[in-house]
Fold 2-isopropylmalate synthase.
Amino acid sequence: MTTAPKDADRVIIFDTTLRDGEQSPGATMTFEEKLEVTDVLVEMGVDVIEAGFPIASEGDFESVLEISKRAKDSVICGLARAHFKDIDRCAEAIKPARRGRIHTFIGTSPLHRKYQMQLDEEAVFERVVASVTRARSYTDDVEWSAMDATRTEPDYLCRCVEAAIKAGATTINIPDTVGYATPEEYGALIKMLRERVPNADKVIFSTHCHDDLGLAVANSLAGVANGARQIECTINGLGERAGNAALEEVVMAIRTRKDVLPYSTGIDTTMLMRASKLVSAVSAFPVQYNKAIVGRNAFAHESGIHQDGMLKNAQTFEIMTPESVGVKATSLVMGKHSGRHAFREKLKDLGYQLGENALEDAFMRFKALADRKKNVYDEDIEALVDDEVAHADD
Ligand code: KIV
Ligand code: ZN
């Protein structure tokens, strides 16, 4: 089985909101909530859904099983450590899937080998071969991850990747588990692996970047520029510590900057806002106001210069349309930085038609109010104008 789309520039979107995302402290979702998120991910066109870690708990097993029965249009993936009991449990959970994937991983860096597992290089290497071989006995869609790949000795990483491919892995994932890499380093790592490892062209290379230094999206895109064709990401960038690469950001970067990122995804971007709101609600993780793409302020403008530009031509201050990510419209937020042009438009929207003098008076009073008040709402402006009109009648 192959999950690789035919087009060489098509990037597979692997969503791990339900696995790595749910591992954020406090982001636990109920069974029903996971199904709700799954339905949105499928409808949005996510290629691979990492539905959970079946050995982790009975609940995780049950949700991966149910998602495998329910979501027939995406590949359903379960995570497993390099232990046969993990892999066997994962295989059971993904069995009903039309297309099921086992994702098995092991720490390859010296730190992980020594402190996490107390295993030497050879012992880890043997586990790579054994785990991928075991997973392949259940499905021909096997992903192997070198946890902490970016802090692993390059020669040893090449050896492990080569062994995983030989044992039957079809996707090779290169996690920047602790968000340590820079885009140049991460891109170079993918390039080096693709050049040095035999049969690298027979598999899909995948990025899995954490955001500890705020570089997860940049690193993922650098990986793609160097030949990776799968990006692992989460809605709202949910995930361990500072989170994972945000799905909405990688997808919109690819869509918006085709000139320098000549790739495509299968995502219906008009569903991004809906997905963001749902994941924020079920995980109880609020989305920061200025978050790229889905933040409340991502399409809001307050300064007079920006509002004036937006009223003349939206491209002056917006590089994508709000509609393209499922936001109804740009919002011109009225505040102390707003100018006359935006104020006049706001009055028109609210149904007022004032003469020039009344408008000027109302604008001055609005400015004075905005200086005192952090947020000026439509009701404030209505009250102010009604008062203005009443005075004019006196
Ligand atoms: O960050 C990581 O290394 C992971 C692996 C399990 C793929 O989440
Ligand atoms: Zn991770």
Residues 20, 175, 177, 208, 210, 240 surround zinc ion (ligand 2) (CB under 6 Å). DSSP finds 15 helices and ten strands in the chain. The CA atoms of residues 123 and 263 lie 39 Å apart.
